[in-house]
Amino acid sequence: MTNPASTPDASIKCRVVMRFYEELNDLLRREQKKQDIVCEFFGKRTVKDAIESFGVPHTEVDLILANGRSVGFDYILKDGDRISVYPAFERFFIGGVAMLREKPLRDPRFVVDVHLGKLARNLKLLGFDTDYQNLRDDRELARIAAEEKRVLLTRDRRLLMRRAVDRGMILHSNVPFDQTLEVLNRLYLWDGLRPFSRCLACGGRLVDVPAEGSALDEALRSVPPLVRSWCKEYRMCSQCRKVYWKGSHYDKLGSLIENLLKARSNPLT
Fold first, then answer.
1. Which of 77-91, 92-106, 114-128, 246-260 has the highest mean pLDDT?
2. Sign of dihedral through CA atoms 140, 143, 147, 149?
3. Above 80 in pLDDT, residue 27?
4. Does residue 135 share a domain with residue 82?
5. pLDDT of residue 249
6. 80 lies in which domain range?
7. What is the pLDDT at residue 6?
8. 39 phi/psi in degrees, rounded to 5
9. pLDDT value at 74 more than 90
10. Structurally, how many domains does the chain consist of?
11. Does one domain contain both 159 and 257?
12. Tens digits of residue pLDDT in 134-153
């Protein structure tokens, strides 16, 4: 695939026109944004290859129209085709259109790139099933995303272009707070927020510790004596057994959630 040519060459076997819509334009070069792009090439090309040649990972795309007809990523481009490429329609219902995936994201599970640890922590804080470790390579991240049907979050476009990855999202910002807003707004996950329901260490679900009994005894063994003197309510991770209580750290995290809600984008704007 080459960049748009100024004049067609008679020896070129295939010439198509492509156009990217909405936020997909953020991934294009300035001269390619919000306009028809003429592409010329020899031999066979799938529409997936053509899309990714512009630096747009297939995970960012949820609808492709070839001459007005919905097609899949394996569609072979033909001379004279007009290709329209759209992002995920998580916020809207589009009846009668064949989307590229079976269903939209309403209860997503994430796997997060090693460079986005603070984003992973924020998503756990908000109650989302988030898998994160800081020593994984690209192959391992792609494997987890494919095998566990998780949405891969990254700032690396090449990682999302791996064929095994079905769902993923490019983060445009390098600021954790803004990255969190990107995920919530672009996938419209605000109704799914369950703050303080997951462990910030491992992502397991938190359960209330009974006021007495062996579970309380277990919890108190990891609680500082000063905290035990005033705190009577605890929560424990069902997986790693880490214990939580409402201290000053809880208030700081609560402020983060409050600021996120204030910065929430209106899905209809």
1. 114-128
2. positive
3. yes
4. no
5. 81
6. 14-87
7. 37
8. -120, 135
9. yes
10. 3
11. yes
12. 999 999 999 999 999 899 99
Q: Which residue has 């609808």 as its token pair?
A: 63
In a domain, 199, yes or no: no
Tokens coding 98: 């064949």
A 10 A CB-CB count for 207 gives 13
Q: Is the pLDDT of residue 267 over 60?
A: no
- Asked whether residue 34 falls in the same domain as residue 132, the answer is no
What average pLDDT does range 100-125 have in this prediction? 82
Residues 172 and 211 reside in one and the same domain: no
| DSSP assignment of the chain | --PPPSS--TT-SEEEEEEE-GGGGGGS-GGGTTS-EEEEESS--BHHHHHHTTT--GGGEEEEEETTEE--TTPBP-TT-EEEEEE--TT---TT---SSSS--SS-EEEE-TT-HHHHHHHHHTT-EEE--TT--HHHHHHHHHHTTPEEEES-HHHHTSTT--SEEE---SSHHHHHHHHHHHTT-GGG--TT-B-TTT-PBEEEPPSSSHHHHHHHTTS-HHHHTT----EEETTT--EE--SHHHHHHHHHHHHHHHTPPPTT-
